[in-house]
Amino acid sequence: MKGTYTKKKLVIAGGGFAGLNLAQRVAIDKKYEVTLVDKNNYNYFTPLLYQVATSFLDPSSISYPFRKLFRNKNIIFRMGELLRVDPAQQIIYLKDGEMPYDYLVFAAGAKTNFYGIESVRKNAVSIKGIDDALRMRNVMVQILETASITADPKERKKLMTIVVAGGGPTGVEVAGMLAEMKKFILLKDYPELKDIPLKIYIVDGGPNLLAPMSNKTHQETYDVFTKLGVEVKLNKRVTGFADDLVTFADGEVIAAKTLIWAAGITANVFEGIPPTSLGPSRRMVTDDLNRVMDLDNIWAIGDISIQYTDPLYPGGHPQLAQVAIQQGRTLAKNFRALSKGKAMKPFKYFDRGEMAIMGRHHAMVDLLKHRVHLRGFPALFIWLFVHLVSLVNYNNKLRTLYNWAIAFTTRDQALRMIFRTDDFESDA
To answer: 55: closest CA among 407, 410, 399?
Structure first.
């Protein structure tokens, strides 16, 4: 019968930047039955997690439910945690079931890398998802509440000392927001703490903060933190965190109640993927079409993948949102070409630049491979615009813009509340 065909089952594991862009763009091809699998029932905007963690944004400002997002879009959503894959049988196994596929795309991103330091894994605060951000928010507010009633000066000093490990965008932006809170908010909410100021450290194992960015950005970041009262420690590697002590490889020790860990990520790994398909940081090695090496009908995009075929990035592309977005969109075009019997095209990354912000308005942007450097209002405008337009829904855009406007004009925000779910007790 004319026009009849069997739909190919395309399963996408992960609904972050890469998976969401792939799903939304390939779903217009009716030759695919598209299913997106994610352990959460919502998409969230990773670059603004730190603002949730520091009480400047509400979680709903940067997240949106998949089922509402996929209404009338030829996309099936399946909430589930992927455990393993059987490439021979073309089946994925979830915690609560299994699912066959014709084509499988891994877009499951990465998780925090603690580099085998068990004391850091157990005791530090990380920030990789909404749950982490809310946990960090609770920890930060609880520490300030405790410090406000602590009489022991030594204990209070430890409570009022925060170490941020990691000088990438997350670490820099977290430290900047904490400095903003220290300068404009802390004494308004906690006048009891006026005699013991909040001490903030940011440490990194390399010679510069925001290492991939330009030398101008390196210097300006250092200068901004100095003005904000944040102590910068470079070429310093954390080796442990226990008993309220942050220890370093060179023997230095900082007494602190809080270590915020933003020092790196490692790819999520699933049983059934052979070791020969894994590269550095356990990322899946792919060809120029993002097909996973040594496997049939399996692709990987975003942070979970690494590709050595781009001559401009012989060591693999950076694990950035723009890479994930572009890989998702390119793979969608390739799947649509595949359904029409056309050739698939290699992925080429277009670097749109890098940016970071500290506090409310200390923004820096590097464009055109660092040939153009912006700071001040132009950089702030670009940062605000890029982050706003990248949010998945108009509700998110409007809510975030409103919260930013309040925070910018009042230098304050009303989200410093502790919400507990892990120790719930019934009133019955």
So the answer is: 407
pTM: 0.91
**Cα 130 from Cα 147, distance rounded (Å):** 26
The predicted pLDDT at position 425 comes to 44
- Whole-angstrom distance, CA of residue 340 vs CA of residue 269: 32
Q: Residue 162 burial by CB count (10 A; 0-12/13-18/19+): exposed, middle or buried?
A: buried
**45 and 392 in contact (C-beta within 8 Å)?**
yes
Give, for 105, the enclosing helix (H) or strand (E). strand 103-106
Whether residues 241 and 181 share a domain: the answer is: yes
Q: Which residue is associated with the tokens 């603690």?
A: 114
Q: In sequence order, what are the residues at sequence separation of 6 or more whose Cβ sits closer than 8 angstroms to the Cβ of residue 266?
A: 110, 111, 112, 113, 281, 282
Q: Exposed (0-12), middle (13-18) or buried (19+): which is 251, by Cβ within 10 Å?
A: exposed
CB 186 within 8 A of CB 413: no
Q: What is the pLDDT of residues 160-199, one digit of tens each?
A: 999 999 999 999 999 999 998 888 888 888 899 888 889 9
Task: Give the distance from CA 149 to its chain's centroid.
Answer: 34
List of residues 6+ apart from 237 with CB closer than 8 A: 205, 248, 249
**Counting beta carbons within 10 angstroms of the beta carbon of residue 377, is it exposed (0 to 12), middle (13 to 18) or buried (19 or more)?**
exposed
Spatial separation of the C-alpha atoms in residues 382 and 271, rounded to whole Å: 41
Whether residue 232 sits in one domain with residue 285: no
Exposed/middle/buried for residue 21 (C-beta within 10 Å: 0-12, 13-18, 19+):
buried
Asked whether residue 213 falls in the same domain as residue 259, the answer is: yes
| Torsion angles phi and psi, residue 199, rounded to 5 | -105, 120
Based on the fold, state whether residues 226 and 286 are members of the same structural domain: no
Bridge partners of residue 202, in order along the sequence: 164, 232
CATH number for the domain that contains residue 168: 3.50.50.100
pLDDT of 2 > 70? The answer is no
Bridge pairing between strands 42-44 and 63-65: antiparallel
Closest by CA to 143, choosing from 128, 158, 131, 133, is 158
What is the rounded distance in angstroms from the CA atom of residue 221 to the CA atom of residue 230?
11
Co-location of 142 and 237 in the same domain: yes
For residue 26, the enclosing domain spans 8-39+80-112+266-339
Number of folded domains in the chain? 2
